Amino acid sequence: MRKQTLLASLLVVSSLSVLAISKPGSKDSFKAIDPKNIDTKVRPQDDFYHYANGMWIKNNPIPGTEVRWGSFSVLQDNTYKKLRGLLDEAAASNSPKGTNQQKVGDFYGSAMDSAKIESQGISVISGELAMIDRVTTKDEVLAAAAKMQRMALAPMFSFYVYIDQKNSSEYIPYVDQGGLSLPDRDYYVNTDPRSTKIREEFALHLEKIFALAGDDAAKAKLNAQTILRMETRLAKASKTRVEMRDPQANYNKMTVTEVNKTTPNIDWSLHFSRLKLTNNGTFIVGQPKFLVELNNMIVDETVEAWKTYLRWHLISSVAGNMNNAFVEESFNFNGRVMNGAKQMKPRWKRVLGNIDNAMGEALGEVYVKKYFTDDAKKRCLDMVNNMQNVYRERIQKLDWMTDSTKTAAIAKLDVFIKKIGYPDKFKDYSKLEITRESYVGNILKANEFAFDQMIEKMGQPVDKTEWGMTPYTINAYYNPTINEIVFPAGILQFPFFDPQVDDAVNYGGIGAVIGHEMTHGFDDQGCQYDKDGNLKNWWKPADEKAFKVKTTTLINQYNAYTVLDTVHVNGELTLGENIADLGGINIAYDAFKRTEQGKANGKIDGFTADQRFFFGWSQVWRQNITKENLMQRIVTDPHSPGQFRSNGPLTNMPEFYKAFGVKEGDKMWRPEAERLKVW
Predict the structure, then answer these.
(1) Cα(483)–Cα(499) distance, rounded to whole angstroms?
(2) How many CA atoms lie within 13 A of 658 on its CB side?
(3) I need a labelling partner for 156 at 20 to 30 A (CA). Which of 235, 340, 602, 667 fits?
(4) 521 versus 8: which is more confidently predicted?
């Protein structure tokens, strides 16, 4: 589902492991800016990213189980080890039935019982396979698809209930394009050698999975061709990632009757009732042309073809969690071919994602009690408030925005909902039943439990206390429909934040993250939502025009960055994140200069405070990444690669030029007239 990723701009960040450190200056002090990571053979004026991180990059190759390895990866690995300890305790606790401890422990126990998983094989989905096998009519195809959607398997299209983007006080159903197996529609339609090769590998993968499911070679090959044909049709009817960034174009509120007229082969009232959704007269159709093509396919494709399609989506969704033969083939394609991974992660790491999806807040509640302090939460909130004050002043001083639009922008900024660390109220899992009988069974039950919770929101007041991430997640986000900024406990660790580190590093880290998330409220997507979270224009035409000029300049700047060979950053796809990066570091720097360290600009370990600020920013983005994963991210990821997240904003900052003596002729130099300031 794209519920959260569609409606919230999420910051994917890099982080560093948590280390026991003391205050800078003591003899046993950990150096927040470690000179061993700096490559002095690279001039900071030419490539600050590789100057600040070059030796770290050289000395930290990608482990065989990973597809990228950077600050984020190290911190996540450290957090995973903490979570593993909590899961081991839960699995061994023999807690009373019905408690969160029992459910988390049994979920983990079922996942770690490799012998049982191996002996069960594909039988763990025998009931679901039998349901598909019983299908004989087109209506039964749609009924089976609805049952699979209730298990969050999302065949044909994406369905979810979320806040109405133009009436943020109510929930409403959404129907979006979907139903694909590959990461993006471009993989089906592009004719470049890489896309063609992936389609060939995908066809082989399909054949192998169908063979493991019991089909003979001829049948498996025929089924693979069916999946490729059907998913290619869906892909051709799908919007591109750039087109999907337009929230107005993707908001089409229609009645069930209206949609039934354009898609007569799909009875939407009946489909919603099968999803156990009642009393809905209207819903949001994200991409009407996609539904028209799906409607045509209902007739054009045979019942047997649709059964093959449903069977594939069922098996592929759980293949990585079944017996070894399925797991190995799932990894071979999704890990090796698509991402360049060399070996599989250990089982305990592989299951953490499913537990996070199933009962993440239950695990998170234990995590924050053990690893997160109220003092850290308070210090972060103080920083957020300071950054908010700075942002307000920066808006007031903008030279390209009229006073009335400034007033509306400040009104939106002033009512940001701030969520830090963990929810005030954790989710209730009392209706979720978990046992040690079947790992896959637990996954599907948890999916259906979450689906039911989503459906139950219809007709209820919008819950603005709900979190879209678990407390231990090393990430942050801004959600335009609630107008909130969210910082889970997981990201409030070094190198983003540590109370014992000097202000320069903290502001270059978490300060820039805070500024980043605030700026998402005013990026090219977030700026289309008002202070109440409604998709509503609050801009004067002259301000919209000035903003468009600036964003076009930023698109062109990032389009010019070469990633690999002839592949460039997609400036349109990454525009929102690039605006947020540029705004975030500028706001953080402004706030930092109001601290005592910022005012004095003294040296620590040979670097001025300003230089340490920029080191703190750049070390967050350091990483090694496989070619395969990098190329996939260029197609699918709205964030620029780490090197350009580091260097891109700095080329627009005169403060960086001053700190490192950047002059005309240096590679980081950008003529003053071309340096961009948005917020």
Answers:
(1) 28
(2) 8
(3) 340
(4) 521
Q: What average pLDDT score do residues 224-251 get?
A: 98
Structure token pair of residue 458 = 């219809």
pTM of the complete model? 0.93
Average pLDDT over residues 595-616: 97
The token pair at 653 is 């900052």
Extract the tokens encoding 235. 């892909």
Beta bridge partners of 608: 603
What's the CA gap between 423 and 67, in Å, rounded? 31
Displacement of CA 84 from its chain's centroid (Å): 23
Domain boundaries, the chain: 3-14+35-80+373-420+467-674, 126-339
Contact 517, 573 (CB under 8 A): no
Question: Which stretches of 528-667 are assigned E, i.e. beta strand?
Answer: 562-564, 567-568, 603-604, 607-608, 623-625
Cα separation, 368 vs 493, in Å, equals 13
Residue 30 pLDDT level (bands cut at 50, 70, 90): low
Three-state DSSP class for residue 96: coil
End-to-end CA distance of the chain: 32
CATH class of segment(s) 3-14+35-80+373-420+467-674: alpha beta
Q: ∠648-653-658 over CA atoms, to 5°?
A: 125
State pLDDT tens for residues 179-202: 999 999 999 999 999 999 999 999
272 forms beta bridges with none
- Residue-wise pLDDT for 546-567, tens only, equals 999 999 999 999 999 999 889 9
What are 197-209's pLDDT values in tens digits? 999 999 999 999 9
Of 351, 318, 338, give the one whose Cα is nearest residue 111. Answer: 351
Q: Return mean pLDDT, the chain.
A: 94
Q: In this structure, what token pair is assigned to residue 505?
A: 């590093």
pLDDT at residue 11 tops 60: no
Amino acid 81: pLDDT:
96
Determine the Cα angle at 299 with ends 294 and 300, to 5°. 85
Query: Is the bond leading into 44 cis (omega within 30 degrees of zero)?
Result: no
**Minimal CA–CA distance to 263: which of 285, 282, 281?**
285
Torsion angle, CA of 301/302/304/305, rounded to 10 degrees? -10
Q: How far apart are CA 492 and CA 514, in angstroms?
A: 11
C-beta neighbour count of 94 within 10 angstroms:
8
